[in-house]
TrEMBL record:
Highest taxon of the lineage: Bacteria
Protein name stated in the entry: Muconate cycloisomerase
UniProt organism field: Achromobacter aloeverae
Family: Belongs to the mandelate racemase/muconate lactonizing enzyme family.
Keywords: Aromatic hydrocarbons catabolism, Isomerase, Manganese, Metal-binding
Domain named Mandelate racemase/muconate lactonizing enzyme C-terminal: residues: 148-245
Amino acid sequence: MPTPTIVSIETLLVDLPTIRAHQLAMTVMQKQTLVIVRLRASDGIEGLGEATTIGGLAYGEESPEGMKLAIDTYLAPALVGQDAGNVNAALHRLDKVARGNRCAKSALETALLDAQGKRLGVPVSALLGGHVRDALPVLWTLASGDTARDIDEAQALLAAGRHDTFKLKIGRRAIADDVRHVASIKTALGERARVTVDVNQAWNEADAAGAIARLEAAGVDLIEQPIARENRAGMARLAARFVVPIMADEAVATPEDALELARLGAADVLALKIAKSGGLHGVLRCAAVGDAAGMALYGGTMLEGSIGSVASAHAFRALPTMAWGTELFGPLLLKDDIVANPPRYEDFAMHVPAGPGLGLMLDEDKLAFYSRKG
Ligand code: MUC
Ligand code: MG
């Protein structure tokens, strides 16, 4: 059988509305833009990939439009004509053509793995050495900006058996208001739910120290990225000062970041995201460093739709330890989906579809409807 080669790579910008406003320290999201990759190989197999960011450029250095441009102009031309089944060689080529651009590379790696899984008749996790768990615990983010509405949302999701851990996005308002908001939600939910907070780097170190003391007293279980990602020494001081664990999110993308955080003792927990790490192999390398250093792991999201979330799940399912579960709820935050068989959410967990590759089928009508024209 001749070696299948990559024939074409198409990118689409897909705008999907969110079910409600999603308020984070740095932006308010009313929609999410997915960069969808369709990679076609000479054996007729198509691989799907996805990349996102959070609030355009508000979160990181790559925007959806920039990712599309980087793929169309630089990354796709480097892959066309190459062996479609050799993922490592393809990734190596991409790293030679472009530095960084890890979200875009993650979408391409996902598409290559999806295609190769379909080719071999195995799920993506099998290409990563196999899965250790079937379903992944998944939390929900409360971010409507309204305390009473957040409590109602959490109570309903607890009662439905969908989520028993809630992450609150704070850092947008005055600290006193944020602490009051979090404490009210924790009091309403009590021992029935774990409550974590994500500050998205909004505080300075002194403010963080005061706020974390109050959040710890209110029963919060985890503090995510309280201060600027560059201030690793500050994170180390906060991690040493408090019992409540400090999680690095924006501060960790690469294995080198994980190593440096470990060396400084700057995080108790690492938020892993395929988008930050340039793909599934990259995120597993990051995880290995964190795990070896005794840091706990958490499966993070870039608020991807079904394709990116299922790709992330295949990587996270391959990890032997995942002490803090995941936040792969992205498809539930979106009003609609471009796949016909999205992941299932029940029993407080995410269940990925069975089948080769990612196991997902595109809904071509929805894809056409939500794709940005022109
Ligand atoms: C982040 O910074 O963790 C994850 C969940 C959510 O609501 O926002 C993201 C981003
Ligand atoms: Mg975060």
